[in-house]
Amino acid sequence: MKLLLIDANSLIHRSFHALPPLTTPKGEPINAVYGLSSILLKILREHQPDYVAAAFDRPEPTFRDEMFKEYKAHRPPTANELISQLHEAHETFQKFGIKVVEKAGFEADDIVGTLAEKFKNEPDVKVVIFSGDKDNLQLVDDKVFVELLKTGVSKTITYDKALFLQQYGFSPEQLVDYKALVGDASDNIPGVTGIGPKGATDLIKEYGSVEKIYEEVGLIPKEVLRKKLESGRESAFLSKKLAMIKRDVSLELTLVDLKQETLDKEELKKYFDGLGFKSLVERL
What we know:
This protein is of the alpha/beta class. It is built from 13 helices and six strands.
């Protein structure tokens, strides 16, 4: 059996920026919903999941904002043309028979991480996370796989532990230690000033975690590196907390609640017709 967890926000944002402007017959912007619908047709056909959920961000501040007020602070406000489509996307998932899950104070990644953790050890269940965000790669393990959009909205790459190790040189659970050192500009996570990707990778390979690095920081022979780490200690531990996806959000859901409903093609066809998605009607 397969549980498909969809990082909805990342797919909608990717579609909005990857596709040219498109409007409904009423003149409303709809390119992100078109891209999302196209992706859903593709992944439901390819995966044929038994269970599926779509995780959304909420507009309220999250626990990360409370921890670090500059978190994502440099991002421009969401475009009005996208806000209306984020609302419409909830309806899109309903038409596809997919349950939407969201919770104030948490990001879509935290919902995905929690559902993966909650159900990955159910008998015979394989968990696949579909996302456009590399942050989810920290969730990869023996029972959890991440299918990641590459460029645009059509090509993907599926990560298991072996592929992640081959590409990154350390294990998926150590991705948060890597981000604790190098930071993440897209989320405004600071990291440690002066530590780049190679330096961070070397440190993780040698010590295993941020905690272990700082246990032995006084013994690091390179004085320049040691001073960078010592001055960035507080930032490193904060960055690790910001980068780590939560896996224990309180969600009152059972696996049965996420059962994929039979696709009502006539209902979906009417929905696509109303939005002007002629090419998607043909694909149905």
